[in-house]
């Protein structure tokens, strides 16, 4: 039986909401008169969904959305809005509310919105429970030279690493930064052979050279090969381009502070700082990044 | 460089916005005086984003949002709102606009909002494109005895199979059905040792969403409780391979009839196995009957893709 926590400072509105939601006898309703009381109640028992007014004393709707997203990211929040609150609604949606229902459309919309959001969140929860049962995974991608693919590729690998518990959330960001550096390097320096010298000097020329090479052989036929092997203990990412490579021995020593400022050393410095191991093949067109699990795996006696 | 179409009936406002973007952003700019003109321009080439005023003669912002959603669903729209147009703006956001910027805050907020919206719009389409670049993947799961884990697993596999172009819509569905049967079998017959007769009762209660008392009871009892279902999924551009193993007692695999024998339609193992055999290209069991391997090859009517393997 899903529990819905209704948050509104007006007793009349609370009763109104209850009337519409009680049509679905499967829903169990709880109430709070403002955001602070809602958070207090959530500490002792988590609802499946929060339905909240926006303008309230103590903690208001906007603050409540932010707090719930922070502390209970799996609990969705639906906003009840009235005329004049449009600006706050948009901000609340941006900061994580799942949906909203204008008060004058309650009769038509409130129950169906609640039911839809509950169904979506149930599906998501099941998906994350499934991913917690993942013990290892591997994947091989062949990416075209498109900047638009870098970000989703990074997100995909970050998610896998987080599911397997190789990294926590802050590590996930750092792993993401390292992967982004490695992928951008393979794409621009490796496959398209565009150096970083132009960057910052003449951005226009830098971008147009990239656009031109994306259409010109041999550059346009090259691919970035991404191989990832992840288990509960370790994540390995190998990123290879089809460019000319370089002599890995010529890399500036990233541990030498004198090299901190050099553009060519920056990506490598970040990769070394965020990963446990960074290695190149002899041809210099493949970098292998390894991140090991920091804490010992939790003993499962459940 | 991303391209934006600016729509506003006031030439002063239009120039203001265009100049702001030329000065402060990497965007290339084009403009139109109303919704009709905007749609006409979009017929030639779609911009990455449309930025529109709400109040305009000849097709206002609301109608424009509606039309863009119909004819160019991939192009996000940002509204420029003025004091007093809040109701119209809310309506436009509901109808499909992606975000809005108040006229009074253009200088501070416009470029950031455009970049955010563009990134989000790309994230959606790029995920599909990313899965299209997947050459090979493998997932290994160790599942608890919880039927709620089966649907999300089938869902994940179906989406991957679709993204990798291994099967068309009906092929995808058939892979899903076979995989689900095999997982149900491993979980209920294998791990929990629920018999065929008991299973009928379980299936009824699954359909009616009733209390699964027999299942719940076994799930909390040793030795059933400690059993896990091992699932290994390997997908490549040429085939999908599934290995599913339970920790139950297995069964005598010699009792499985020859699938080529027409009398085999009602085999010992029932409907599940005949669905699996019909929908998969190869089905194998290990000797103890607690592990099934199923293979589905890429459908023949599709052209093999040129390989870019190094």
Any descriptors?
heterodimer; A: 302 residues; alpha/beta; Rossmann fold; Heat Shock Protein 90; 2 domains; five-stranded parallel beta sheet; five-stranded antiparallel beta sheet; 10 strands; elongated; B: 310 residues; 10 helices
Tell me what you see in this structure.
The complex is a heterodimer of chains A (302) and B (310). In chain A, α2 packs parallel to α3, α3 packs parallel to α4 and α7 runs antiparallel to α9. Helices cover 43% and strands 20% of the residues of chain A. With 302 residues, chain A is of the alpha/beta class. In chain A, β3, α3 and β4 form a beta-alpha-beta unit. Chain A has 2 domains: 129 residues, 3-Layer(aba) Sandwich (Rossmann fold); 157 residues, Histidine kinase-like ATPase, C-terminal domain (Heat Shock Protein 90, 2-Layer Sandwich). Chain A is elongated and about 75 Å long. Chain A has 9 helices and 10 strands. By secondary structure, chain B is of the alpha/beta class. Chain B folds into 2 domains: 127 residues, Response regulator (Rossmann fold); 162 residues, Heat Shock Protein 90, CATH 3.30.565.10. Chain B contains 10 helices and 10 strands. In chain B, β9 and β10 form a beta hairpin. In chain B, α2 runs parallel beside α3 and α7 packs antiparallel against α10. Chains A and B meet through α4, α5, β6 and α6 of A and α4, α5, β6 and α6 of B. β6 of chain A pairs antiparallel with β6 of chain B, so a sheet runs across the interface.
